[in-house]
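Long-time lurker. I teach an intro course on protein structure, and each term I like to show students one example going from raw sequence to a predicted 3D structure in token notation. This year I'd like something fresh instead of my usual example. Would anyone be willing to generate the tokens for the chain below so I can use it in lecture? Attribution to the forum is fine with me.
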Amino acid sequence: MANINNVVILGDSMSDIGNKWLWPTGQLGRLFGAMRVNETGRFSDGKNWTDFLVEWSTGDALMWGNSDLTIRKSADYRTLSGCSVLDVDPGDKPPRMKSWKNLDDYLEQLRAEATQAKRPARSPEQIKYVNYAMGGCIVTRDWDFAPKFGALTYLRGQVEDYIGQRNALGTHFAGPTLHVLWIGLNDFVTAGRPDYDPAKASNAPATNDYAAWRAWSQAHPEELKNGRGAFPAVEETRSLIELITSSFPGAKADQYFMVIDLPSVYNAIRYMDGIGEPSMVEQAKKIDPVIGRYNSMLRSLVLNWPDPQAAGAPAPGHVHLVEMSRWMNHISQNLDMWKLSKKAQDPGVKPFYQAGIPPAPQQDPVPADVRRRITTSDLGHPTEAVYSLMARYFVTKLLKSGHTLGRIDSDTWPKSAPFGDLPFDLPD
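-- Reply from a regular --
Happy to contribute to a lecture. Here you go:
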């Protein structure tokens, strides 16, 4: 396949490195306790899975030093510009997590890196990285009324921002590019998207085959305007992938995509019978089957892309599915194997920065058993410990797709991955 030069993250809270909490709706959500993020804007007690991907592939870290430096450095990668460049340290060196003496020293280094990033020729020792993911983002756009009074954003907006900013960079952005799309839980959980009612929908397919649903939707376009069902989420995903491909027709051979499916809500404390929130436990009975149908339909799309010869269709074999649903079911069924516990953290757990700038502690003051609980205090989002296992599985599937990324290849990964003695994948 390809040695990836550029990584583009598109999605929601699971991947967000500080986009949502700075928006007015995010600030309002935090004020009223409807949204919880840590002091760097991540929906985690520390890092999320994209932070691990950056560290493992480059040896650099977005989250280190203290909250101010983490926020400042992350800002360079929340939109695409000449500063969105990560240097790749040789694989035999430890991660380059430097402790800056003060903010001025750090900003001076950033200016030097920005100047280097603007050169027409780019070193193969660099990866251009951008992360548009935003908490509260949804993929479907067929709602009669904007869900949550318009507080939720749409994935199409992220894609349009990316296309515009990439066009502005011109030849400074080139080479094999990996687009990662992970979204949909907000559609079915936050917005409460219901499934189709078979008694009311006009001869809706009884199968989860994408092609059957696409044919049905073309015969019944009215059914795509009422905020129901799994198919519109999958259809919009297809549309956005083809929009990206068609926006850069000369680079079609260099456009790669990895689409991640949705874990069951039953992996989160909030939805677990006996320890979760009673109203949410009842809601899960309606949500989880729709998520299962979405995953099946998404898999059908990736395996049999429609009209593969169309101008906007991605190149054959350039779209891969990461079945995070199966992996997280495996994690949930084997918590002891991964040193996790079926508990939520108490409020107030803060990130631990490596390396931290004094007076930050040199050792994590939070006990290991608290760090290795499965959700943060909001009962819904994973902890850093769980995110690391999500990232571990993503990298495994990245390599199985034939790609390499910076320091990550099939030789180095088994030696450097966390829990290197445990299975990296599930049996087919």
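Some talking points for your students: The beta strands are 3-4, 6-11, 85-87, 126-131, 177-182, 255-260, 319-322, 341-344, 373-375, 404-405. Residues 183 and 217 are 22 Å apart (CA to CA).
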